[in-house]
Amino acid sequence: MRALFRTAALLSLGVSLAIVLALLGQAVSWLTRIDLSMLWGDGWFPRRETFDLLTLVLGTLLVAAIAMAVAAPLGLGAAMYLSEFARPRARRLLKPVVETLAGIPSVVLGYFALSVIQPGLVQGVLGGTGAFSFLAAGIAVGVLTLPLVATVAEDAMHAVPASLREAAYGIGARRTTVSTRVVFPAAASGIVASLILGLSRAIGETMVVAIAAGATGTAVRTLDPFDGGQTMTGAISSLAIGSDQVRGSSLAFPSLFFVGLLLFAMTFALNVLSERLVRRTRRWS
Amino acid sequence: MTSSAATLGATRTAVERSLRRRRSDLRGRLFSAGLLLTLLVALGVLVLLLVTTIDQAWPVLSERGSTFLNDDASSLASRAGVRQGLVGSLVLTAFVAAVALPTGVAAAIYLQEYARDTRVNRMVIANIRNLAGVPSIVYGILGLVVFVQALRPVTGPSSYGRSYLSGGLTLAVLVMPIVILVTMEALRAVPGSIREAAYGVGATRWEVIRSHVLPYATPGVFTGVILSLARAFGETAPLLLVGAVTGYLNAPGGQGPIEVLQGPYTSLPTLIFGWARQPGEDWEANTAAAIVVLLVAILVVNGLAIALRNRYDRRW
Q1: Residue B267: partners with Cβ closer than 8 Å, 6 or more residues away
Q2: Any alpha helices (H) in chain B, and if so which ranges?
Q3: Residue of chain B with shortest Cα separation from A18
């Protein structure tokens, strides 16, 4: 039995190794075949052999920044309310609802961004034009990452020992003071970890961007949130869907491996960082 | 006498007033209301999403609800249905359950119950945590290289490797780390005293796990596993890379199970993605209706998981 279970556990190492090898092998072989000047240009046009990675990285960061501007205040606010202010009954009722929000598939939010956020908010209120925008995609990605930020941050705040709160109440502190001056700093590393985890999730989110940020597979380099464009994940998915047509030009399709490697490296670094921070909050228990 | 009673009364009202003023802490109330507002905004988005989707889906659902569920994908908006997507998603999820659950639970039992706290084991656990955070599209690339390209003779010689097998294996690899982590969590929650009692009457380690730890951990394992299967059910991005059909799927009937598994496939989320990119109001209504079907399926599953947890939530 033991040996069988052990094999299953070691399988996970095999999977990680396979991911790295699959990405690395194909990415390097792509890099050796292209002319390095193709990596610099005025945009991402894989079929014209212009692979300006900066376009994709900037698009990704723009979407992630908008997403965090939505998810950080809402997620942390909800977390603090659930952990410090809600009565036990309200907490039991509200927490599952937040978790349900986490269970909504990303295609659904992508369609919501395209059919509601873009026409209703971006065009209607903010005066954007066009059917696609980074802004609509970013807001939807923010809604998608919000439950993750909220649950991780809530766990961190909930784990702060009651003795710290009681000590503060004992010298006459109000609940607001206890929440912001005692619980928040004590849970700080867990809260930062929740934000980093959210950022990593926002960077890796694919379907919302593929549906709502523009689906043409090409992008001009831009930092205007009202423009549409491509992120790293969006570029990978449109290369994959269009693979039948693009396969003729042999350089376009394999570029997705290099973009994938870059994406993997970025999210991996963020995940390791947040894992370190979460471990620091565990010292309470 | 009367004057002292008056002073007493005055003092009492003063004390009462000051106590009451303390209690009506305006800034505190505002802060708490602000926090509640953030939570309500988040829930408001959920409600808005449901309302707008159902509103858009209504024409399709009310006019041809049952045929919409039973029709195949079509290039005509008025004749397109979700049957193939629904069947595809169910087959994929069943496949994921068959592959990822035994392996994931076994790995978790090893790591939680057998493994000593060595450096290698700590590394394996940290590695699994990181795998759980890898973007799903990266798993798609893995599936493309390993299952679609390298293992093509196994996964689908006639479908260029773009088969149920490739899609199912990719999703299984994707949810495996989540299954391992939630199972470990559930095992960890079983108190040591139960294990010690079993050891005390002479049970072997495997007997302790099988007849004591696992039964107590089952509700927790169930909840986590159901949630990860719901995740697999709604996942889209990796399937785009391992070749789920986004448009019209021509599925020949009358084949054995192996031919079906090696054959082309689509899934409900993939179908939604394909439809969302089509222009026109007809397709918008179709997309919304398909989303309603997907959400109902996922909400039912999530509700089941939450109900299970609340029913069996045990505190030691």
Answers
A1: B85, B88, B89, B92, B167, B236, B239, B244
A2: 2-23, 26-70, 83-109, 119-132, 136-143, 152-155, 164-188, 192-200, 205-208, 214-234, 237-241, 257-262, 268-276, 281-312
A3: B142
Band (pLDDT 50/70/90 cuts) for residue B21 is low
C-beta neighbour count of B315 within 10 angstroms: 4
Q: Using CA atoms, how far apart are residues B274 and B290, in angstroms rounded to an integer?
A: 11
The range of the structural domain enclosing residue A25 comes to 19-284
Taking the C-alpha atoms of residue B137 and residue B134, their distance in angstroms, rounded to an integer, is 8
Using an 8 Å CB-CB cutoff, list chain B residues near A78. 35, 38-39, 42
Q: Residue B245's closest chain A neighbor by CA?
A: A241
Model confidence over A117-157: pLDDT tens digits? Answer: 888 787 777 777 777 888 999 999 999 999 999 998 998 89
Q: Is the pLDDT assigned to residue A246 strictly greater than 50?
A: no
What value of ipTM does the predicted structure carry? 0.87
Does residue A239 lie within any of the structural domains?
yes
Q: What is the pTM of this model?
A: 0.86
Q: Write down all domains in chain B, each with its CATH number in brackets.
A: 79-312 (1.10.3720.10)
Question: Contacts of residue B299 in chain A, CB cutoff 8 Å?
Answer: 100, 103
Q: Residue B163 above 90 pLDDT?
A: no
Q: What is the structure's pLDDT at B175?
A: 92
Total domain count for chain A?
1
Which residues of chain B lie closer than 8 angstroms to A111, CB-CB? 53, 272, 276, 287-288, 291
Name which of A45-49, A174-178, B132-136 the model is least confident about. Answer: A45-49
Interface of B with A in 57-96 (CB under 8 A): none
Residue A254 located in a structural domain: yes
Q: Is residue A8 part of a domain?
A: no
Which CATH number is A123's domain given?
1.10.3720.10
Evaluate the CA torsion angle A36, A38, A42, A44 in order and state its sign. negative
